Amino acid sequence: MRPPRFQAASSFHEDLKGRIKNYFLEKNLKTTGNFSLYFKAIVMVLAFIGIYVHLVFFTPIWPFAILESIILGALTAGIGFNVMHDGAHGSFSRKGWVNELAGISINFLGANVHMWKTKHNVAHHSFTNVDDHDDDLNAGAFLRLGPNQKRYKVHRFQHRYFIFIYAILYFYWVFFTDYKKYVTKKVAETPIKKMDLKEHVSFWGFKAVHLFLFIILPIYMVGFIPWLVGFLIFGLATGVIMSVVFQLAHVLEETSFPTPDKATNKLEDDWAIHQLKTTANFATKNKVLSWLIGGLNFQIEHHLFPNISHIHYPAISKIIKDTCREYGIPYIEHPKMRLAIASHVNHLRHLGRG
Ligand SMILES: [Zn+2]
Fold first, then answer.
1. What ranges make up the beta strands (E) of the chain?
2. Interior CA angle at 48 toward 336 and 135, to 5°?
3. TM segments (predicted)?
4. Are 24 and 31 a contacting pair, CB within 8 Å?
5. Rounded CA separation 112/177 (Å)
6. What spacing in Å lies between the alpha carbon of 81 and ligand 1's midpoint?
């Protein structure tokens, strides 16, 4: 299946790029991360290591162990959102090796950065909400996330059980879909960039590191059943947090699910307008949430400028919003996270019923 094509870039996109470029020139700012981002990265990584060591080597009594397993899951998602995501987009630092290092954090947590770059930077960012191309829309037969997907009877209840599917995302990703991508050499319809020997060794080497750090060593230290309970809680917490944050940005009542024209294989908009119709912001005034989830509540800014670090999104969002208003282009946002969740649940309910 050939990748769909977009319409030629509109004057809106050119104008917007110019305004954002001027903002960084006028303020004399780099588009990459700054001290506050590196400080946050260090805090999150040290907190992760501290809690991991406490859980595995100095295991507290079970109520605290459960709480720490949930926090470890939240920190896994947090490192993914704040460090790995910017690193893999090349926006964490001006230095290539720092971005590489930030991206590799995902390998220590069980997934693989090479696969991620194809799944996220190419498939998801290019063809947002386009079936068969955006792998984030693919939950198998378990969930009907877009109106162009086949409906099964079980989907009638998907607005009630979706959270259980989201919860298994971490396990499904780390233990199944990474290997599926490795074997099939593609993500949905997007081929994975050819892996050289170094990348093959890195793939298997890091999978072995993950196996040792998250399974073998903890079982040796705390025993099988305590490990199993802790690992399940950790993985389920990671899965729920990651899925919810990503779904609230795209899979909503207000966003579009465009299909390419059958004859021309072209989508109806240019790339930038496509991003605006398929992406939404939520709770952008919530500074704590923005800090924790790496600015992924500013998904519009992220999708239009994925190579700009998330620390700049609050500042550039005003320019983007004003430009959209001038050109009469939608800028979808939910002021509160609970409203975005309600929209996501309603979307699932409607798609489950017809
Ligand atoms: Zn991204």
1. 5-7, 186-187, 190-191, 266-270, 280-282, 332-334
2. 55
3. 37-55, 61-84, 96-116, 161-179, 200-221, 227-252
4. yes
5. 10
6. 9
| Model confidence, pTM | 0.93
Which position has the token pair 């990265």? 41
DSSP 3-state percent helix, strand, coil across the chain (nearest 5): 65, 5, 25
- Would you state the pLDDT for residue 2? 82
Calpha distance 181→183 (Å, rounded): 6
What is the Å distance from ligand 1's center to 121 Cα? 6
Share of the chain above pLDDT 90, in %: 95
Ligand 1: centre distance to CA 317 (Å): 16
Rounded to the nearest angstrom, the distance between the alpha carbon of 54 and the centre of ligand 1 is 32
CA neighbours closer than 13 Å in the CB half-sphere of residue 20: 25
What is residue 254's DSSP assignment?
S
Q: How far is the CA of 305 from the centre of ligand 1 (A)?
A: 9
* Cα separation, 100 vs 109, whole angstroms: 15
Contacts of 217 (CB under 8 A, 6+ apart): 56
Distance CA 329, CA 307 (A): 22
Q: pLDDT by residue (tens digit) across 257-302? A: 999 999 999 999 999 999 999 999 999 999 999 999 999 999 999 9
CB 144 within 8 A of CB 158: yes
